[in-house]
Amino acid sequence: MTTRFVICDGAELARFWARIGPDDSETLLWVPREKESRARPPAFRSLAGGVNPSSLEKLNIKANDFFAVVSEDPSFVRSTVNTISEISPDAPLLVMSDRMNQDDFADHNCIRMTGLRTQLRDDVHDEFRHLANLQKAVCLKNLLVEREKIGILLQPDPDPDGIACGYALRALLGRKAPTAPLISFGQVQRPENQAMVSAIGIEIRTVLPEELDEFDGLALVDVQPTVFGENPPPRVLSVDLVIDHHPERTGYEALIRDIRPSYGATATIFTEYLRATNVDMNARLATALLYGIKSDTQLLGRDTSSADMDAFAYLHSCYSPALLRRIERPALPADGLRRLGRALSKTKLEDNIHLLVLGRVREDVIPQVAELGLQAEGAEWSVAAGLVGQNLVFSVRNVGHVRAAGEVVRAVVEGLGVGGGHRTMAKGIVPLKAFREVYKRTNQGTIRKALIKAFKSAINGEESDASLALG
Ligand SMILES: [Mn+2]
Question: Residues whose CB is under 5 A from ligand 1 (ion)?
């Protein structure tokens, strides 16, 4: 077994170490300072003559043993490190001192340097952060505990972050759907978000502003009241709770608000609450929150803080990979696969653009085909297009080091439809009626020709020629 030889400089540090509680693998050594009381700290052996080759030889050091030198005196550290290196040249060495840094040991290749006080200080700061979250969570629970029915209001067309937060708030309050329903003024639109709602098993009720009267508590998560249009319903301008990560807005009343614009997701705030209150983090809840953070930060890329990273790591230990897969890779219907097969049989790349036109498909097939299309050899851009209802819908993916996908799609739909997105992913919708007015037909060949021309122009920065409206 490896022994850790811990050498403390002076009685004070030795007593401190004794207080931490030594580990069974540790042999504790103490070098008394001049004029210091000789009272032996508990469990410590004295190196009364200081650290020297003869005092170390008595310790029966084996080749694999570790050392720690605990001292605030750089000269003590240096001489101790040198003596140990003479006796046991390859010994791994931990130096704990707040007055030195790693550069002081440039000659040694197996020394790890860390502070002693700062080490504890960081942990203490963390604990106070947990305590602040606990305080917030206790306040909001106290505020709402007596309420009969609490509406948890999400933004219209709720996104994964908002949905996860609503679900988490309900868990935090220890309630179920009948007394704390998730509500929204609009339906969940995007197929990916619908997949999340059905995989986790969350119901979101669409309400009219006047229906808010049935709730004697109103909580807004991942949204602030002034987002609900020019003239928001009066009821949402005076609410119980607002928890959000968007920039703070004014013009509304909330009894409790916790707004943290530096966070990449509101789900991070809720993860911190749940963690601080020791609420059972079941796999469903963890998966919802993890997906919320992942989707708002584009997998910890854009606008991510260290708090998001911490929350993500915490959730990662208890989420369900199978459930996340169901959300992110919804099952493809057989007819969608057949259309994909037909499109793939004619696949061809033009200017590193891989365009697959699917015909009429279920909407959630389109983004998945766009993901797949990017795997083609030589593809820098993947575009998957299909007919959904009265619209031509297309999803775009790129490899990341090219123009932003959102900009490209905005240039393509300019004047004819709507679209946008982020660096590497975007979506566009063009009404078939508008497309037909320009191109006369809506068959797959026509769509293919129109899209490839528009995307080539937009990707090459010729925005003025890119719009589908130009024909
Ligand atoms: Mn959000």
Answer: 161, 222, 266, 296
